[in-house]
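Obj.: predict assembly geometry.
Materials: sequence records (below).
Method: joint structure prediction, all chains together.
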Amino acid sequence: MKMAPNSTDDPRRPIKVHRFKAPAGGGPAEDITHEYMNLLGMIFSMCGLMMKMKWCGWSALFCAFISFSNSRSSEDPKQILSAFMLSFSAIVMAYLHNPQPMSPPWS
Amino acid sequence: SAALAANQYHQADIEDNEFAEFEDFDDEGEVIEDDSDGSIEDQPKVKVMMAPEAEEATGSSDDVTVEDDEDEFDHFQDEDEFEGFDKERPLRSKAGDKPQELKITPVPLHLRTKWDNFHLEMLLLAGVAVYVLNFLAGKSKNSRLAQNWFTHHKALLESQFALVGDDGTSTEPQSGVLMKDYENAYSLWCSGRVCCDGMLVTLKLLKRQDLVSTISRFFKPASDQIIIKVDLAVDELEKFVFCVANKKVASKMQKDLVDLSSFTELKKVVADKLPPSLHLLNEVTEASSTVMDSKFVQTMAKYESLIEYIHISDQYSGAKPTDDSQEAKIEPSPALLACFNLPSKGPGAGDMTLVEPLMKLIFHILNRLPHIHLSREAREKTRKNRSRMQELVQKAAHTQRAEAAQIRKEERKRAEKDRIMAETDPEKQRRLEEKSNKKDARKKQPKMKTMKVKMS
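Observations (raw C-alpha cells):
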C-alpha cells in the first residue's frame, strides 16, 4: 500500500481505509438460477431412479450442468458433486433396467 | 350295438334335412360316448359316417378312416417344401426315448440393439459436449474481459484510492485482488479516499459460460454491466436524493427503490441538460442543477447509450422489501450508485476501456459533493420530507408491533381455554372458569382511580 503525501489535490486518505465486508444480502448479482436448477435436477433424478425413465435421467444431468455453471465461486463443491452423481446414477439405473435405446418422444 | 341303431335312425332322416353335416358332427360325439365295450386301443380307429353329399366331396366312396398322426404331418417332411430339411433325422423321437436335452446357445444381451440404434443418446451426449465446450470458452472469455478492465483501470483507481483490490479475508489489507463471485460476476473493493468509506465495483458480465442463457440472449438482448456503489461518509454531505436514469428503467426504479419512491418526482424532459433517453428523478431542483454541471452534461450527451443510471442519495436503503416482516430493513445510508452498460455488439463490443471517462465522471462528482451547499429553503424542504418519512416508518413499525401483541394475546387466551377444557375434574374446571370470568369482568369495568385522602 503506497503511502501518499496528503497534498491538496490528492484525494487518497490511507487512514480512512475500510476493509471489505461481503454485503449481507448477497450482493447485487444475487442469482437464483443455481438453486432452482439444483432442485429441478434433484427432482428429475429421483423420477429417473424410481420410475426408470431415461429422459428424466438425461434432463437431470443437464440441470446439474446448468446449476454448476451458475453457481457461486465460493460455493462448496459437495452440493454440485452430489447433483452430478445423482443424475449419473439415474441414467445408469434406467439403462440397466431396460437397455433398449431411448425412443424419441416424436416417434 | 345301440350306437349302430342310433346311426340307422339318423341315416333315415338325413336326406330331407339340410343341416345334416352338423348333426353328423353331434353323432360322432355320441358314438364315442356310447361305446359300451370300453376297449379303446392306443390309436383308436374311429369310424365316421359321412353324409352322402360330404362323401362325393372327398371322392372316396367307402368310409373315411382318420389317419394316424404320423401320416397327417407327412407334408412337413416334404424336402422341396422346406430348405435344408434332412430326411434321415427322425422328426419325433419315439415316446419311450429320453427327452432331447435342451441346448441354449449363449446369446449376447444386446443381440438385437446395435450401438448405432442409440441416435437420441448420441445427440444428448453431443449436447453435453457442446455445453462443456461453451462453458470453458465462456469462462475464459469472461475472466479475460474482467482482467482486461482491471489492468486498464488500475492506474486510475490507484490514483484515487489508497487501497485497491482488498478481499477482506486476510488479516493485512491486500491490494490488486479482483474477487470472483460468479463465473460472470467479479467485484473489486477500493477504500481510503476523502468523503467516502469505500467503493465496490461489480463487473456483471454476460453469462457466456451458460449455453442456455447464451441462447436466451438471442431473444432478449442484454449487455455487460459495470455497477459502482460508493459508500459516502455520513457527516460531510448535504441531504438530498438525485437520480439520472435511462428511460427504460426510470419508472421501474422509482417504484422499486425506497428512497426514490418516497422523495423524488419523475421529470421526463430536462431540456438543456439531459439527452432525451435519460430521465431525471429529483427531490430538490437546486441540488440537481449543482450536480449537473457542464462536465456532467457533456459526458451524458457523449455516452448516452452507456448510462443505465447514476443515483446519489443520503437515504439509500436498497429495494423495497417484498414482504415487510421477512426482510430486515437495511439502515438508510448515504451512497452514490452508478451502472454502465457496455455495448455487446458493434464496434465497442468487449472493449472495457470505454467506461474510463465515466469512471472519471464518478470521481469528478465525488469531488464536487462536499462543495454542494443548499439554500435554507431547500434544506428546510428536505428536512420536512425526511421527518414525514420518519413518521411513516415509525407508524408502520408501531402497527406491526400492535398486530404482533394482538396475536400473542389471542394465543394466550386460546391456550387458557384449552387448559380449562382439558381439565378432567369438574370441580377444578368450574373454579377455573369462574376465575377467568372474574378476570374478564374486571377488565370490562370502567377504570376508576381510587384516591386515598389522609384526614389530617
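Conclusions so far: Confidence is low (pLDDT under 50) at residues 1-6 of chain A.
To do: check interface contacts against the pulldown list.
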